[in-house]
Amino acid sequence: MTAHPSALTSTPRRNLARDIVAWLRSEIISGQLRPGEPLAEIALSERFQTSRAPVREALIELEREGLIQFGATGRTRVRTLSPKDFDEIMETRVALESMGARRAAPHWTDEDTAWVEINLAAQAQASTLTELSGLDVEMHAYILRRGGNERLIHLWQSVRWQFQMGLAYSHRLQQKLSFDARGLTVESHRRLLAAITSRNPETAAHAMAHHIEEWTEWWAKEFADAEAKPAAAKSA
Are residues 105 and 182 in the same domain? Predict the structure, then answer.
């Protein structure tokens, strides 16, 4: 767990930027820092009681992860994922994760199934939707690692945090719409696990692609509806 901001001054200088990245990333993914919210170096350095140098390093890393944006005027804001951004992330996931599932299936073991079962049990009991999103991503990362292709994993990591930010938003939207986010997530993952345990590469790849695409279609529709309502209210 990352230290509270007030404790960061006792952290060795070389670790300050890493700790600030972890703290801000967690707040962005959880929705505490909302899309479009400004992130000023001076304010952040005061908050974390440190110089601006590690704050600047942290912001550069978060920009690489796709969680924040540097504007043309030099202002920094939490990234707002547009439908186009989300579509591109999901298309990338389908390509990478279906390949990962295809590679993982022939080598899948009972120990792997046991690991996923523990993860699914934790998903079902997750105390927050942010925790649920984190467990969801951990399961997908595990399947990719079992595929054994290091370059594939590296490519997936390039969109991992944007994906997790969008996923957490989706889970919050499900809750707002009275959907059972935990139940839907676990049920979908159990179908995916059944396909991978077949140890058939094509069955696993198809199931992974379907799992992501099915969720993407739901998200795209509900996101569009949710965004349309505020716009309609403003024009009324």
Answer: yes
Helix, strand, coil % (nearest 5) of the chain?
A: 75, 5, 20
Provide the domain limits for residue 23.
Answer: 5-78
HSE toward the beta carbon, residue 225, CA cutoff 13 A? 11
| 117-165 tens-digit pLDDT | 999 999 999 988 888 889 999 999 999 999 999 999 999 998 899 888 8
Question: How many of the other CB atoms lie within 10 Å of CB of 4?
Answer: 9
Write the pLDDT tens digit of every residue in 178-196: 567 788 889 999 999 999 9
Q: Residue 133 sits in a domain of what CATH number?
A: 1.20.120.530
Does any domain span residue 235? no
The pTM of the whole model exceeds 0.70: yes
In-domain check, residue 236: no
Distance between CA atoms of residues 81 and 79, nearest Å: 6
Q: Which residue has the tokens 């001054």?
A: 9
Residues 6+ positions from 98 with CB-CB distance below 8 Å? 205, 206, 208, 209, 212
Rounded to 5 degrees, what angle do the CA atoms 22, 141, 126 make? Answer: 70
